[in-house]
Amino acid sequence: MASTSRNEEQGSSSSAGTSPIEAVKTVTWGTNLKEDVFARWGQGFIFSEDEPAALLQNEGGPCAIIAPLQGYILKNLLFQEPQVEHWQQIDAERRRELLLEAMTEVLSNVSTSNEFTLILQADKQQSVMTENPVIENIAQGGQEPPTDHNTFHSSLRLQSYNSVEEVHSALQASYHMFTNDGGVLLFLYSVLLTKGLDSIKVEVEDSSEPLIDGIYGHGSQSLINLMLTGRAVSHVFDDEKEVAGLRMKGVTEQGNIGFLTLLENLRYCEVGSYMKNPRCPIWVLGSETHLTVFFTQELSLVAPESKWETARRIFSSYDTEGSGFIQAVLLGDVLATLELFSLPEYVDIMRKKLDPDEFGIILLNAFMAEFFADEPDRLIPEHFTVYHYNGLKRSCPQNKVSFITGRASVPNPGELECLSEATPLKSCLRTKWPTFEVEWTNSVNPSII
Question: Beta strand 55-56 with 361-363: parallel, antiparallel or unpaired?
Answer without folding.
Answer: unpaired
